[in-house]
Amino acid sequence: MSLNLDTLRLQIDSLDHKLIALLNERAQVSLDIGAAKKQAMDPQEEDSTHVYIPGREKVVFEKVTRLNPGPLAADSLCAIYREIMSASIALQKDVMVAYLGPVGSFSHDASMKRFGDSVQYASQGTIADVFEAVERGRCQYGVVPFENSIAGSVVPTLDKFVKSKVKIRAETYLPVHHYLLSKSNIESIRRVYSHPVALAQCQTFLNSRLKGIELVPCASTSEAAQLASKEKFAAAICNRVCAEIYGLDILHADIEDQQDNTTRFFIISDAWDAPTANDKTLLMFTVDHRLPGALCDGLKVFKDHNLNLTKIDSRPSLIRPWHYVFFVECAGVHGDSEAMHTVVAELGKYCLDVKIIGSYADQLVQE
Ligand SMILES: C=C(O[C@@H]1C=C(C(=O)O)C=C[C@H]1O)C(=O)O
């Protein structure tokens, strides 16, 4: 069969016609959904109406992947849907997302992958600033790193959860590849800038190729790139995109200790999302260390309710020395469920204070 380019292009034109009509039909329904969400809210609370529903988006992505007959790759179709939903959110409300900046950070990457191009972004200097932007209502959503598969927990994020009222609304996992960027060559480098968690992910490379070189911790990897771009004999460890943004050369690619290096981010907001088919919940509590076995009794509550723990962490309570806050994440349960209400009540018998920090759709299998 001979293929005629003009005829094929006419076919594309006709399909685009239909696609545009369908996309706008979808956008109109999304506008109606936005109006329905507002109607369901107390008028005084209108400002906190949530347009971003990560649990629903997960269902849409799963459906799109399931229904895809090809030849489009599943990732391509999901990227298209990311943007369709981003535009749909922006139609419903002006949404501002705070992230640890400047532009080019992994938090920026994670934010874009979660919210797409149609919402607005506000770069923040520190993780604490991201929390503050959400607490003060300047941004409805914030994106903060929570843990890395090589370096472990991101301490400033854990510490902010102790005092803050913000809730976790979603989680997202980002594969992380680090680059050594500089204006100079590797032999002339005298100083390497990066975020401490990023430096911790590149120990093997730093010890073999840049042993003894001054390591300077920064608030973010993109701030590191910005600083390195202003100094002749400095380098930054950061995301590849920083090379173009900050005018730096790539000296080395993929310098992380393990190639499957991944960072988990949380999307924070003033409220968690509604239950989905598969949620996780992060709780925080302190135990009275004078009572022998208090932590063990607390953890046994989860076992008694058949809840699988997916993470446990502790941090100083900052109330008095040698007094700790424990963070426990459990799978298969939502903060609004009867089961979780019972767990919180039972934990109250052994723990000084118990707080649910958030409930979110489990993304581990999908991403
Ligand atoms: C349309 C909605 O609002 C947003 C947009 C979505 C979409 O375009 O499919 C899905 C979830 C929300 O983030 C909704 O809540 O269903």
From TrEMBL:
<keyword id="KW-0413">Isomerase</keyword>
<comment type="pathway">
    <text>Amino-acid biosynthesis; L-phenylalanine biosynthesis; phenylpyruvate from prephenate: step 1/1.</text>
</comment>
<comment type="function">
    <text>Catalyzes the Claisen rearrangement of chorismate to prephenate and the decarboxylation/dehydration of prephenate to phenylpyruvate.</text>
</comment>
<dbReference type="GO" id="GO:0005737">
    <property type="term" value="C:cytoplasm"/>
</dbReference>
<keyword id="KW-0963">Cytoplasm</keyword>
<dbReference type="GO" id="GO:0004664">
    <property type="term" value="F:prephenate dehydratase activity"/>
</dbReference>
<keyword id="KW-0511">Multifunctional enzyme</keyword>
<dbReference type="InterPro" id="IPR036263">
    <property type="entry name" value="Chorismate_II_sf"/>
</dbReference>
<dbReference type="InterPro" id="IPR036979">
    <property type="entry name" value="CM_dom_sf"/>
</dbReference>
<dbReference type="Pfam" id="PF01817">
    <property type="entry name" value="CM_2"/>
</dbReference>
<feature type="domain" description="ACT">
    <location>
        <begin position="283"/>
        <end position="359"/>
    </location>
</feature>
<dbReference type="GO" id="GO:0009094">
    <property type="term" value="P:L-phenylalanine biosynthetic process"/>
</dbReference>
<feature type="domain" description="Prephenate dehydratase">
    <location>
        <begin position="96"/>
        <end position="270"/>
    </location>
</feature>
<dbReference type="GO" id="GO:0046417">
    <property type="term" value="P:chorismate metabolic process"/>
</dbReference>
<dbReference type="InterPro" id="IPR001086">
    <property type="entry name" value="Preph_deHydtase"/>
</dbReference>
<dbReference type="InterPro" id="IPR045865">
    <property type="entry name" value="ACT-like_dom_sf"/>
</dbReference>
<dbReference type="InterPro" id="IPR002701">
    <property type="entry name" value="CM_II_prokaryot"/>
</dbReference>
<comment type="pathway">
    <text>Metabolic intermediate biosynthesis; prephenate biosynthesis; prephenate from chorismate: step 1/1.</text>
</comment>
<dbReference type="GO" id="GO:0004106">
    <property type="term" value="F:chorismate mutase activity"/>
</dbReference>
<feature type="domain" description="Chorismate mutase">
    <location>
        <begin position="1"/>
        <end position="96"/>
    </location>
</feature>
<keyword id="KW-0456">Lyase</keyword>
<protein>
    <recommendedName>
        <fullName>Bifunctional chorismate mutase/prephenate dehydratase</fullName>
        <ecNumber>4.2.1.51</ecNumber>
    </recommendedName>
</protein>
<dbReference type="InterPro" id="IPR002912">
    <property type="entry name" value="ACT_dom"/>
</dbReference>
<keyword id="KW-0584">Phenylalanine biosynthesis</keyword>
<keyword id="KW-0028">Amino-acid biosynthesis</keyword>
<keyword id="KW-0057">Aromatic amino acid biosynthesis</keyword>
<dbReference type="Pfam" id="PF00800">
    <property type="entry name" value="PDT"/>
</dbReference>
<dbReference type="InterPro" id="IPR008242">
    <property type="entry name" value="Chor_mutase/pphenate_deHydtase"/>
</dbReference>
